[in-house]
Amino acid sequence: MSDTFINIAWALIFALAGGAAGAFLLIWFSSRIPSVFNKITPEMDEGKEIIRGNRAVAEYFGRIVSAAILGVSVIIAAAVLGGLIAALH
Length: 89
Description:
Elements: H1 3-40, H2 46-52, H3 55-88
Helix pairs in contact: 1-3
């Protein structure tokens, strides 16, 4: 096998491993972000406020959680891309 095919195989392995690790971390962080947010605001129960129909809390909570998930996704994508670049050189 030539070095090109070996490098492509390693890049594929790194991409699959990085994708699997990224998916796991994204799911794990997504489940942890609301609990961290609840610790930051101990005097307010966001779940009860959302059930009561407090739209401001629902929108703020949704924006914070979605921003955190997007941030974690960008970090994971950078790690996967770094692994691919390292495998191809």
